[in-house]
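Issue: copy button drops trailing tokens. Both records pasted manually instead:
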Amino acid sequence: MQSIEVIKINNLVEVAINNLKIHFRSINGKNGWHQYLGSDKIGNIATAQALLLLDACNEDFNNKHLAYDFLINAQNTTKAPLLYGGWSYVTNFSELPTTECTSWALLALLKNYSNTKKTKKGLQWLIENHPDKTKDIGWGTIKSDIPRVYSTCLALRVLKKYKFHNSNEFQNSLSWLIKSQNTDFGWGEQFGHKSTIFHTSFVISTLVEIYDSNNSIIDNGISWLIKNFNFTIENSNSNIGSQEIIDFDYANGDETKHQRLIYFHTPLPHAIIALIDTGNIFNKNVFLALNEIVNNNNNGYWKHPNFNDSTQKPLWLIYNMVTSLKKFTLNVKNWNDVKKIELKNNKRILTSNTNPFNMKKFFENFIL
């Protein structure tokens, strides 16, 4: 029997959000977060993800406006091709704006700054840095990079949310993403690459945002995920963490330079999100994965199995783990009136904090 205890999830979310708040930094006039909490730098993606998570959890924070100001002002204003309007990495690759940084910044600014000149310029940068609007091709990290599934999904999410989904760049990239589905119905890092839990989950959740209802592409993808996301203790590390190595060349004046980035992906929370997004909230592996997140935290922090420095406290792990926890809680009606949810022989058994004589009526509308 698998069970979810409401109080454990609520307490963990509270502790993790508090960790986020106490690591807000003001350094040399810059305000926000770095991907490794406690660092003496302020990062663009980290600040964007922190703001997104605070909003997702409906958390007030006195310094939130300072973080928004930093993110807005971190936009590149150098009036040169491939630069003006985008956001870049602070540490790993600051020479050019990237699809990933720009997408995360625009997602964070959507709620309160969607109609500003800054966001409009950011959207223009994202569209203009699509490789070729006349072809079915997705985004890479930079314009000259090869198309990548993760980068393309981020860009598509941004353009959909900002209502730019009728553009040629959006439609052609969506077509490329669909064509990138493997014959086993999963997705990998690139077209033709082996299907992975992370990339398949990320694509499914992206397509759910784009389409009003499930279609055969999503249905086939979720079938692959249910079949392959067989969560056990033995394979928990590969489910919790994976890494994607990004190699590309870029022009720097008269010379060509090479750049390598490493993305530390988190398959487990994204699989939870994809399963919930497609109505599979009571899948056994959702319960197993949620409990893995709860049981393997360290006072509201998590470790990535592919990340060697165990002393670091990655903000992106907090973002991904808490996002999946909140996704579950928001898809359960009257969440705080429930004490425990159990699965036994594919049936759910519910323990409520309410009067037991009213339980039948209460549980009839339990799930959203």
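Record 2 (pasted manually too):
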Amino acid sequence: PFKLVTTLKHLKAFVFLGDVFDFEKEKDRLLKEEERLQGFITKLNGKLNNQSFIAKAPDDVVEKERKKLADSEASLRKVRESLAEL
């Protein structure tokens, strides 16, 4: 397998990774990370959709949970992009 490194106008540079990089191991790692992130996002969504939590928790705590959710969603997108590239 080759990995596209860069594109300059009409020139594309590829690097052969077949003997250096274990694609199956990396795919397994990314799939586990995807599953972990999905679970964490589900948990955070549950907490943030709980009106009792929103009403009782201090604003800074709610904001931290929203930031965790946004960061986790961004990480999940990156993991999925990496999986697509494999």
